[in-house]
Structures are given as structure tokens and as C-alpha cells.
Write a structure and sequence with these properties.
The chain has a domain of 147 residues. With 387 residues, the protein is an alpha/beta fold. Strands 1-2-3-4-5-6 form a six-stranded parallel beta sheet. Helix 7 runs parallel beside helix 8. 21% of the residues lie in helices and 9% in strands. Strand 2, helix 6 and strand 3 form a beta-alpha-beta unit. InterPro entries: AN11006-like (IPR038883). This is F-box domain containing protein.
Length: 387
């Protein structure tokens, strides 16, 4: 088969004439009709296209009169508006030079210092919004605001995986300015309890850099309370649980109270075979002694623990003996229910009166030999059983 080929039609473009080397002098032509004079159309705009034939209209050089009031070249672009575009309204808002006044006045609106609007009604000037300055508040109110800001954080701070979500995001407030940094950081470190050795299971439990070692001198000096939690690692404490210089305990000059929380009594019978008798008691008392030796201004030790821990168990007796050697004041926390003279009610009931709690016993008839309750004797020493 033979393919048919079609030829495209060629478009013939006309050739444009080029100007000669020099324009020839035009021949003056006298028009048959007379052209109107310039006085007939005073506002006629001269043509922008030059012509070789002289025109009867007035040229730009010949027009020496004042400029027109409504010439578009004399109106600024910012003053142009579609409202009140009539010549009568525009003439009222022009000055002597033909320029427009304020755009608000041209539109009939109230200016910044005006008192009337387009309807002639009174209108108060709008006040500019001034931003609120936080540092203009008294320091007492700023401290209360810091308390609301850190309210959701835990009262006891330890090395945990949740610190980035709970603590770090709250501490971003310290990046505001130097004044906020000093006030907010002092409030945070002075109102929270910081754990000396981490107890969260995992990599933080055996870390070589406890929480105090990760803080600077200024942050440690603002602390007022530390906590020593005993019980984890009762069979093999971590090697990092030792008082070293990097802890910076000597820099904790404002620490007055150390909380000692006992989670577990290692002398219970169900732990036989999992621990060495007397090891953890000796380790705990020695660790507390080293901490109290390093702290320069501590004066109070607060004991607390879980309800299952007895007040007269071996580990508690060892810790109390260490505190007595340093001649410090002893207080009791609210978790266990211990008091200065008694154990908690749960231990007294489970041990049938065992402990240092006060036990009231009726030993016989009264002094008159009559039937009734006899004299009351209070025992402060341990009592194994009561008949």
C-alpha cells in the first residue's frame, strides 16, 4: 500500500515596510474644515502620539493654566475609593492643592480624633490593646502562678522514663528569661522531694549517675528535702548506691529534712533463703550514716514505710540507732501510721500486741474488792502475748 502524504499549506506573511534612513519633511496640508480652538474644549487631553502635522489643539507646552481638580495624576493611589465617587463629594474633601484629605474623612467615617460618624452619631475612639506583662505582677502572685504550673508534677522526683513527659515539659518555662528562671527554678527545687538513689526498675536503677549527680550546684543548693528509699535490692544492692563526691551532698546547704522510707522488712520469714541474715540492715544503717555525715545542715529525719513494716523490726532499729548517734530529731510520716510511742494498728492486731505500742491490760478487781475493772497498766516494752 502506498501512503498518502499531504503537504501543509504555506502561510504567506506580508512583508512590512521599513522606514527610510531619514524622515522626509512632510508637506503641509490645509484642512478643508477648520479645527476647533483650544478655548472650546479646555479640558481636552493632548494626544500621546506625536504627529508630524501641526495640530490646532493646545499642546502640553502651551497649556500653562492651573491643573484640573479631578486629574487622576494628582490623586494618591492609597486615597482612591469606590464610595462617594461623585465630583461634588470629592471636591469637599480636597485641600487647596487639589489633594485629598484623610481617607476616613473622604468616606464620611470617624477619624482617630473625630467624634462623629457618617450618620452624625457620637462614637468613642477605639483603644489600642496593650499586652499583659507577667513581670509587672507582685512576686507573691508570680509564686502562686508557679505553683499552679507545677501542680501536675509528682511531689517526689526520681529518675524515671516519664520525666520527659511530666517534668521536662514543665521546666520549659525556665527558658523564658533570667528573672523567671531564677524564681521558677527556686520554687520547683525547693518545693519537691528529690530521691538520692533511683529505685525505678530498669536501666536507671543501676545507673552510675543518680539524680543528684545530674544537677548543677545551684539546683542542689535550692533543695530542702531528700529521700532515701530502702528495700529494693535487699539481696544485692546496686554498686552505685554509695555516697560519692559527684552526688554533691555538701552543696545541699538548705536541706533540713531527710525522708527515710522503708519499703520492705528483709527479716520476715518468707524471705529466708533469698537473703543473708543481717546484711541489708547493716548496709542500710551504714548508707544513712554516710549521707548524714555529708549533709551540712540536716536536723530532722522522718521515718515512714508501708504498713507491713513493723516499727521494732531489725532494719528500723538499726536506722533509729544511727539517727541517735547523730543527735537528730525523729518524726514519723503519715503513710504507715507510726507515732512516737506506738506502732500502727495493723501491726498491733496482726502480731497480737507485739511491738513497742502501748497495750492496756486489766489485771483484776478494783481496790475496794468489788466486781468491776481493776487498775490499768500500760506497757511500752514488746509484749508477745496477752492472757
Amino acid at each position: 500500500m502506498v501512503k498518502k502524504t499531504t503537504k501543509k499549506a504555506q502561510v504567506v506573511r506580508p512583508r512590512l515596510s521599513r522606514p527610510n534612513a531619514g524622515p522626509s519633511a512632510p508637506t503641509p496640508v490645509v484642512p478643508a474644515l477648520t479645527t476647533p480652538s483650544s478655548s472650546a474644549f479646555p479640558s481636552a487631553v493632548p494626544s500621546a502620539v506625536p504627529s508630524a502635522i501641526p495640530s490646532a489643539y493646545a499642546s502640553e507646552d502651551e497649556d500653562d493654566g492651573p491643573p484640573a481638580k479631578f486629574d487622576a495624576r494628582t490623586i494618591p493611589m492609597a486615597k482612591l475609593t469606590l464610595e462617594n465617587a461623585s465630583p461634588e463629594a470629592g471636591a469637599e474633601n480636597q485641600n487647596a492643592n487639589g489633594e485629598f484629605k484623610d481617607a476616613a474623612a473622604a468616606n464620611g467615617e470617624t477619624s482617630e480624633n473625630g467624634e462623629t460618624d457618617a450618620d452624625g452619631k457620637g462614637k468613642e475612639p477605639e483603644e489600642s490593646i496593650v499586652p499583659f506583662r507577667f513581670l509587672d505582677l507582685p512576686s507573691e502572685l508570680r509564686v502562686k502562678i508557679y505553683g499552679y504550673h507545677f501542680e501536675s508534677t509528682d511531689p517526689v522526683t526520681d529518675l524515671t522514663p516519664d520525666n520527659y513527659r511530666k517534668v521536662f515539659r514543665k521546666l520549659l518555662l525556665l527558658r523564658t528569661c533570667r528573672t523567671v528562671y531564677q524564681e521558677a527554678s527556686y520554687y520547683f527545687y525547693s518545693s519537691h522531694i528529690f530521691r538520692i538513689f533511683p529505685t525505678h526498675p530498669g536501666r536507671f536503677f543501676k545507673t552510675r549517675r543518680p539524680l543528684l549527680a545530674r544537677l548543677n550546684k545551684g539546683q542542689r543548693s535550692a533543695m530542702t528535702r531528700l529521700e532515701l528509699r530502702l528495700g529494693p535490692g535487699f539481696n544485692k544492692p546496686p554498686k552505685c548506691w554509695v555516697v560519692q563526691r559527684k552526688l554533691g551532698l555538701k552543696e545541699c546547704v538548705n536541706v533540713r529534712t531527710v525522708n527515710v522510707f522503708v519499703q520492705l522488712d528483709p527479716s520476715v520469714s518468707w524471705l529466708d533463703g533469698f537473703r543473708k541474715a543481717g546484711f541489708y540492715e547493716t548496709f542500710s544503717s551504714s548508707l544513712l550514716n554516710d549521707i548524714l555525715t555529708e549533709l551540712p545542715n540536716v536536723d530532722t529525719i522522718e521515718f515512714d514505710g508501708y504498713e507491713s513494716v513493723r516499727k521494732n523490726c531489725p532494719i528500723m532499729e538499726a536506722l533509729q540507732q544511727t539517727v541517735r548517734e547523730h543527735k537528730l530529731r525523729v518524726t514519723w510520716g503519715p503513710k504507715n501510721g507510726w507515732t512516737e510511742t506506738s506502732d500502727n494498728a495493723t501491726n498491733v492486731k496482726l502480731n497480737n500486741g507485739a511491738g513497742t505500742g502501748k497495750v492496756i491490760i486489766n489485771i483484776g478487781p478494783n481496790a475496794e474488792g468489788m466486781i468491776g475493772p481493776g487498775p490499768i497498766i500500760t506497757y511500752d516494752s514488746p509484749i508477745m502475748s496477752v492472757a
